[in-house]
Amino acid sequence: MSKIQALIVDDEWNMRNLLRIYLRKEGFETSEAATGQEALAWVNKQFFDVILLDVMMPDMDGWQVCKAIRETALVPILMLTARSETKDKVKGLGIGADDYLTKPFEPQELLARIYSLLRRSSLTPLARPQDHSLKFSGLTISPEAREVHILGRAVDFTQKEFDLLSTLANSGQRVFTRDELFF
Predict the structure, then answer these.
(1) What pTM was estimated for this model as a whole?
(2) Gap between the Cα atoms of 139 and 149, Å rounded
(3) What are phi and psi of 107, to 5 degrees?
(4) DSSP letter string over 140-175?
(5) Each residue of 62-80: pLDDT tens digit?
(6) Domains along the chain?
(7) What count of other Cβ atoms lies within 10 Å of the Cβ of residue 70?
(8) How confident is the model over 71-129, as pLDDT tens digits?
(9) What is the DSSP letter of 77?
(10) List-wise, which residues carry 4-aspartylphosphate (predicted)?
């Protein structure tokens, strides 16, 4: 059986190191990001079973990162932050986080929450919507929603532009005539 893949997103090295130690001791495989942009790059290139996400980071805050991840993925997200006010918890859960834990925390509680998220995410795999999105190094094309995202940001396309991009992206190395493309 493969190891559980966890992404740790926190701008503080000490916190990433502590989380890495806890998770690896439990047999997890960990990847780390110190910024929101790094986190989105990781999510675009690799599958994760769970993401631990800090809120207060320099380039993009955790709220923005969570929203961007939710545009393309259903991976469980646990917000792990020093922001302990009820309004922050409500905001985090409202924008798509699956759980919210405040710092400082007890390692046993963190692990219990992670395992709970993993159980819930694996209970009904058939009930999850199929993701037919096409992903290319920062570019995500979602045919069902007719949306295009570049580095997590939505980009507007006309219907014809979207159809053309989608056709080319779905066709690999195939060469098209002009008539085939302008259907």
Answers:
(1) 0.67
(2) 6
(3) -55, -40
(4) EEETTTTEEEETTEEE---HHHHHHHHHHHHTTT--
(5) 999 999 999 888 899 999 9
(6) 5-127 (3.40.50.2300), 134-181 (1.10.10.10)
(7) 14
(8) 888 899 999 999 999 999 999 999 999 999 999 999 999 999 999 999 888 754 434 44
(9) E
(10) 54
